[in-house]
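User: Could you check the structure of this?
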Amino acid sequence: MVVQHNLTAFNSNRMLGITTSAQAKSTEKLSSGYKVNRAADDAAGLAISEKMRRQIRGLTQASANCQDGISICQIADGALNEVQDMLKRCEELAIKAANDTNTEQDREFIQKELDQLAEEIDRVHTTTVFNERNVFSDLGIDPSYMEAPNSAIRNATFNKDGSLSFITDTGITVEVGLVDAEGNRVSAPADTNATGTVNSDSVSNSGLAQFAVKAAANAVNKLAAAYPNLFGAASTNNIQVGLDLSNIDGNGGTLATAALSLSSSSDNTIMSYRMKIDTSDYGITAFDSYTDAQKADLAGVIAHEMTHLMMYDTITTKMLGSDRFPDWFIEGTAQTSSGDNGHLSYVLNPSSSDAAIRSYMGDLLSKPYGAGYLATAYLGMSASGADMSNVTSANIAKGLDKILTAISQGKSFDDAIKESTDNKFTSLGNFQQTFRSAGSDSLAFAHDFLNARGANGAGSILYPLNTPESTAFAPSSLVTSAGSYTINPENTWYSNGYGTNITWPKPGTGGGTGGDDGNAFVIQAGAEAGQFIYINRYNVSADALFGGLKMDVTGAYREPGNGEQGNVVYGDAASRADTIDIIKEADRRVSVVRSYYGAVQNRLEHTIKNLDNVVENTTAAESLIRDTDMAREMVRYSNLNILAQAGTSMLAQANQSNQTVLSLLG
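Assistant: Sure, the predicted structure tokens are below.
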């Protein structure tokens, strides 16, 4: 027997301490409801659980974000419902005014109501808001939409702040601003500077990046050759454009965007350009395996875009505001560069009947990408001075070059048409009426043009008309040098400064106003970066809905592009007939936009259901890791409670064991 070390008591105390510690943890689990309260409880489980919690909370907020997106769609749809009601009233008034039982004064009264309704449409456009953000935007997408396979461009918006934006069916959005405060030509930037994010070598040297550089250079080179007088008189040299190869909205959505951001002061103007290509659709590594036909189609789209930029740079005042070109000429001119991309060729061919061609030509105002393309070619041919039956790319380009150069030098569109065609057409209105009526001259041209294109020709004036797209824009044939709008793949944004005392935008911003902000609401629809759903913002002003035209039942207004009001371009009856067509097309455009918002709302509802399902199941999985099984833990706690009582009793007895030594002293 020993008295210095009571090993039995030591052992009983140690075991009681273990039991007490386990009992305390069990108590903590029962009282908190969690079996993992600290990292030591389950290190790996805690890490997994916290990751799941982050995802759950993020997805819950994403679901709320999508609900906000639904609210935006509902507000937009409600506003457009009122716009459509107003357009129905406009149509009633236009049809009433078209009746010859009305006097001139009657039509003036009708015109006053039409003007008020147009102003109310503008008010709805500017005052419809959600959470203090405008649902519609002057920088938004133009509602015109032409349904045709493989179409390159679907709309263009000319904004009140002096910027231009447009988007293609393949997703390319372009926004551009003034060269200087007055819109005057500047021969070249005073300086250029990279103001975006530096691209890695693997990006800037990739096949996709190098192809974008070549396609843009090829387009500008061909445009300079097709429009030598315009480029010589009005073009700006050495403009640099950045390249951003990254995800935009996942596979199958927007393929690319091209944007210009503008800032200006009393001393200078800065234009920052960026071309962004969605790598979810055009993989950087996969692009090299694409067929030449696929690459040629993209090159054609880029040619269309470069034509818009060329026109904006050289004839700025005619691309903006109330004095701008009509949509059919803006888009038609760009289509002559890329070819019609199916807008014309899917409807008409060399064997089409006179009736089919007349019907199509009559839709000039509502088909700017098809009928506008044909009308632009007819105008160019008429201004070329060549025999009208000798329809060639060179002759069409020569005539368009003559008209655009005259406009760049200060001529009105009316005067440019009149002088360039040697009085064949006296004004824009006269040309439109002649083309839409499809008389012998314009009808004969349409047949000659379709025959010159042939069955497979792209119809681009940058090449012979009968050259197929896959041949015209073949990657192996692209010219790789140009004097302006050069894509530089080393940085995502390039800023071009004009004037003095230039302060460059901060790197990564592009700087200035404009850019992508006006085109869409970005809904964060997931817990991870880049999980976006875009809700387009549309320009639903009266100017955009009516395609830059004006509801006119009196004949008192000039055609857009003529500037001031006053003189009647063509007869009152023709003016009233056009007004009915204009309102009809505006109503269709509103229906397109409403359909879009309805489709997005349905999509977001499904997104919310999916997010909520993921949250529910992820929460269940996280619960298995983190939550206490109360029944099992109660069994364990009862067991530990008994052990604690037993341990306390045993420790007490062990402490008494040394007392037996005293009996030896007795």
